[in-house]
Amino acid sequence: MSGSPDDDRLEELREKKMQELREQQQGGGQGQGAVDEEAQQAAQEQAEAQKQALLKQHLTDGARQRLNAVQMSKPDFADQVERQLVALAQSGRLQQRIDEEQMKNLLKEMQPDSKSFDIRRR
Questions:
Q1: Longest CA span, the chain
Q2: Please, are residues 73 and 62 in contact by the beta-carbon 8 Å criterion?
Q3: Do 106 and 98 form a contact (C-beta atoms < 8 A)?
Q4: Bridge partners of 59?
């Protein structure tokens, strides 16, 4: 699925932003604190937009809804799942879109083993 116009546009924007950040870092000096924070904020927003575009491309509506539900209850776990999905998508290991059933299985696999306590009464 790589090579679509959206992917090319995102890559161009990312490269442009990275070049701007490099130029700002080289230009360094005093008074750059606010500019650096703005650039960092913009880079984070751009990275988030790119992540959401990848997820939208590789997840069905049902799978995205399930992931959003997990995001509401366990945001840290959902972020971990999103990072894993983005890594798989960027490496080209996702051959097809992930549906809701596959998302359920993925969430089960990635969920840490819950620690249960057996309480025995004497």
A1: 72
A2: no
A3: yes
A4: 98
Instruction: Report whether 21 contacts 39 (CB < 8 A).
Output: yes
Q: Hey, what's the torsion of the CAs at 88, 90, 93, 97, to 10 degrees?
A: 80
**59 φ, ψ (degrees, to nearest 5):** -120, 140
Q: What is the pTM for the complete model shown?
A: 0.58
- CA dist 101 → 13, 59, 64, 107 (Å): 34, 11, 11, 10
Neighbours of 102 (CB within 10 A): 15
d(CA 17, CA 55): 21
- pLDDT (tens digit, 9 = 90+) per residue, 36-62? 888 889 888 988 888 888 888 889 999
